[in-house]
Amino acid sequence: MKSTFRVLVFVLAIGAAAFSSSCSDDDKNPPVITFPSNGDQYEVKVGESINFSFIVEAEGVYASHTLEATASMGVIVEDNSTIGDGAKDFTISGSYTAGDVSGPDGLKLTVKDNEGAESSAIINVDILN
Q1: Are 87 and 112 in contact (CB under 8 A)?
Q2: Of 50, 52, 86, 107, which is least surrounded by CB within 10 A?
Q3: 39 Ramachandran zone, left/alpha/beta (phi>0; psi -120 to 50)
């Protein structure tokens, strides 16, 4: 009985060690998104446009992204370039045209990687008269 118990404990210990080492090897950080003005607010006059770019490092490899205006006070024209399969470092850029009402808005990028992790970043925009 003691030897059966010892064998069972040994098998469980080896299984736990194998599981923990395989999981730690697969853990990747979520995508890291930066932009040139990190934290600074862009200013644009009503009806005018600005160019923007987000720099992304996706350790878990690019899967998809969404780009949206946070207050929908302007229009985002996204860069239509294709992000290649297996891309880990890439840029998403485009232009933003302010609407006809002044106030705060933002450009929000959300990136999802092949590991299921996602990150978001916002470039703040102030629309001026």
Answers
A1: no
A2: 86
A3: left
